[in-house]
């Protein structure tokens, strides 16, 4: 209901904006330490790379600092050319974004009109909902699988004449689950060509399953309604630079370019991303750390008899044996930052990022102490 006082700023805001819930990011380490009066805390909450940024990217960034008085390349030419060469697509198929979330938002801004619907799974990345609802469009939320992942049969059944975009995270955040090739192909067969399938592959580099469907291959095979969305925030360790990219039909990227801001990716982000692409050693070390850390945490959760969802990404979703909010706060007091999942409608679950070996061990030790304090 709209406020009656026309001098109230809330009266100037559309109802669909007034009803939005802002995205709540993970706590920065500095904020936590100031609030709690502690030092040497660890953040394993936001699925960041625990090994830090690509060293090649850092070196390239240092060289680029002297040119900050210049505007960035509004087209991102060098980065797009390199991505196109590696992905075997045309530069015109690539759109750069201020993080992959901007690509998702640009899809809604460019291709949806009032009355259109965007379909998403119940426990999926909250940006999908914001991208749709912040413009007054209708979100359609489908039931998840038993592991809180995407039920593609449910999503296909939800398609109507007003469906414009279907958002799928593969792997899914926050569950770490994935849809298989068989599931994906059966789903695509039911999707009309007029419906955009936005495949959010922020964590695809971590997947080691043979039946994982690389959406890019389906796009290159002629599936023009697929848009592949990826990021430099995770495996490349460049979350602070905010840069991601999308791969789409050339005509679609042409329209998106009419909507996006002229300089939506800054100079340092472009330089860092370009250098990170060739840092094979950093990528290899990151994957090995993730592989080892995942096995360690799974084994420890089993030892502690804690329920968790098997993950193919760089994080694990686990059910807290005690009140999740209280466990989260007591972990904070011990300098361990994880992510509560109330915002994803999973109030009894917490998400932990795979850290370095010392961080993983410290997390388990702190978790045991916290659970012991509840008598678990």
Question: What do these coordinates show?
Answer:
With 376 residues, the protein is an alpha/beta fold. It has helices at residues 15-18, 29-36, 55-64, 77-87, 100-111, 126-133, 152-157, 181-188, 215-220, 250-259, 267-277, 280-303, 324-333, 357-373, and strands spanning 42-43, 94-97, 117-121, 138-142, 163-169, 196-200, 226-231, 244-247, 308-309, 315-319, 336-337, 339-340, 349-353. The radius of gyration is 21 Å and the shape is globular. The relative contact order is 0.16. The mean pLDDT is 95.
What is the topological layout?
Layout lengths: L14 H4 L10 H8 L5 E2 L11 H10 L12 H11 L6 E4 L2 H12 L5 E5 L4 H8 L4 E5 L9 H6 L5 E7 L11 H8 L7 E5 L14 H6 L5 E6 L12 E4 L2 H10 L7 H11 L2 H24 L4 E2 L5 E5 L4 H10 L2 E2 L1 E2 L8 E5 L3 H17 L3
Parallel strand pairs: 1-11, 3-4, 3-5, 5-6, 6-7
Antiparallel strand pairs: 2-8, 7-8, 9-10, 10-13, 12-13
Helix pairs in contact: 3-11, 4-11, 5-6, 5-10
């Amino acid at each position: 209901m709209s406020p009656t006082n026309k001098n109230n700023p809330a009266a100037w805001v559309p109802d669909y904006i007034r009803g939005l819930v802002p995205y709540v990011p993970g706590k920065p380490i500095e904020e936590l330490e100031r609030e709690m009066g502690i030092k040497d805390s660890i953040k394993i909450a936001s699925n960041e790379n625990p090994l830090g940024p690509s060293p090649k990217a850092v070196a390239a960034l240092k060289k680029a600092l002297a040119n900050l008085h210049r505007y960035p390349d509004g087209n991102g030419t060098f980065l797009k050319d390199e991505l196109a060469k590696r992905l075997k697509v045309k530069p015109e198929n690539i759109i750069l974004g201020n993080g992959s979330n901007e690509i998702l938002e640009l899809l809604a801004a460019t291709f949806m009109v009032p009355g259109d619907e965007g379909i998403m799974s119940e426990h999926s990345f909250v940006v999908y909902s914001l991208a749709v609802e912040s413009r007054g469009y209708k979100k359609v939320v489908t039931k998840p699988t038993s592991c809180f992942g995407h039920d593609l049969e449910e999503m296909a059944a939800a398609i109507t004449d007003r469906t414009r975009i279907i958002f799928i995270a593969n792997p899914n955040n926050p569950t770490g689950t994935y849809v298989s090739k068989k599931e994906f192909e059966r789903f695509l067969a039911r999707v009309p060509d007029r419906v955009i399938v936005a495949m959010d592959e922020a964590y695809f580099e971590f997947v080691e399953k043979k039946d994982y469907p690389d959406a890019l291959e389906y796009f290159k095979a002629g599936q023009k309604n697929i848009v592949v969305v990826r990021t430099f925030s995770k495996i490349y360790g460049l979350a602070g630079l905010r840069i991601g990219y999308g791969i789409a039909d050339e005509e679609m990227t042409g329209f998106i370019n009419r909507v996006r801001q002229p300089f939506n990716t800054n100079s340092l982000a472009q330089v860092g991303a370009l250098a990170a692409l060739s840092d094979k050693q950093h990528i290899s070390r990151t994957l090995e750390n993730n592989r080892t850390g995942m096995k360690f945490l799974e084994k420890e959760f089993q030892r502690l008899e804690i329920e968790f969802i098997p993950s193919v990404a760089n994080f694990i979703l686990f059910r807290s044996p005690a009140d999740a909010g209280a466990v989260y706060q007591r972990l904070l007091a011990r300098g361990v930052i994880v992510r509560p999942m109330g915002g994803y409608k999973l109030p009894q679950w917490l998400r932990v990022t795979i850290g370095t070996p010392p961080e993983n061990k410290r997390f388990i030790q702190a978790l045991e102490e916290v659970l012991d304090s509840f008598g678990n």
